[in-house]
Write a structure and sequence with these properties.
single chain, 105 residues, alpha+beta, two-stranded antiparallel sheet, 63% helix
Amino acid sequence: MGLGFRYGRDEGSTIARGGLTFTLPVFSRGQELRATGASRATRLGRELEAGRLAVVNEVKTAFETQERRVEAAEELRQNGVQALDENETLALRSFEEGEINLMDQ
């Protein structure tokens, strides 16, 4: 439905015209609504799939990061603590034999 107003000149006179228009759905059978709905459904489906892929990627990345952290902690437990104990033993022995004192840096 539409409302319109026009004015113009015809043979020196000003003419004003008003109008009311109605669109009859003779040729329009909802194709625009169906097309809009279909494109919206397609877009939402693609957004949903993108969201799913993002979640899978984040979970996979978090799991791989956790595995690497566990491996690093295990490496530190096996080798780092042993090296620290050896270092402490050598430092204590050097202190007891007078090779180093507490003021050495």
